[in-house]
Amino acid sequence: MRIRRHRVPGREPWRSATAAILDEHGLSVRRWRSSTTGCAYIELPEIEGPEPRGRVSFAVLAHEVGHKALGHGRSKPRWQEEVEAWEYAIAQFERFGLGEPGVGVMRRADRGIQHSFGMALRRGADPARIATTAPWWWRRCMGEIREDLAA
Questions:
Q1: Phi and psi based region of residue 83 (left: phi greater than 0; alpha: psi -120 to 50; beta: remaining)
Q2: Are the C-beta atoms of residues 25 and 68 closer than 8 Å to each other?
């Protein structure tokens, strides 16, 4: 595998951690976004994401790297890929000694996962399968509102 050295904008320690995960997975950033949104291209070793300036922007970028690192594409349900990518992103905080992800990161993860659960349910996904595959996230994101569906 070719070693890439990235010129990563942003602030430390987020910049170093970002460069490490990009290099580790042989990824390039197609475009640095000014918003805290991202995109992982299925067919290319490229992602888009925010400049890593703090916890939330780093987590969003690491989430997109997670999609690529975990080989996501179209082989699993989208909600499951979202859960796995957020778990990957959150694990990077401990891996790089960045402390706890914090409330903002967890709120962002909750919002993304809740959206993917909602889309899956609207498309006819089995709520019991989601609840048993990702029970912690199901309880956290869907709460008691959907507990009756998973029963």
A1: alpha
A2: yes
Q: Tokens 């694990």 belong to which residue?
A: 91
Are 38 and 63 a contacting pair, CB within 8 Å?
A: yes
Contact 13, 96 (CB under 8 A): yes
Read off φ and ψ for residue 32, nearest 5 degrees: -85, 125
Report whether the peptide linkage leading into residue 135 is cis, meaning its omega lies within 30 degrees of zero. no
Give the domain ranges of the chain.
14-144
The predicted-structure confidence for 97-139, as pLDDT tens digits, reads as follows 999 999 999 999 999 999 999 999 999 999 999 999 999 999 9
pTM check: above 0.70:
yes
| ω into 45 cis (within 30 of 0) | no
CA dist 129 and 38 (Å) reads 27
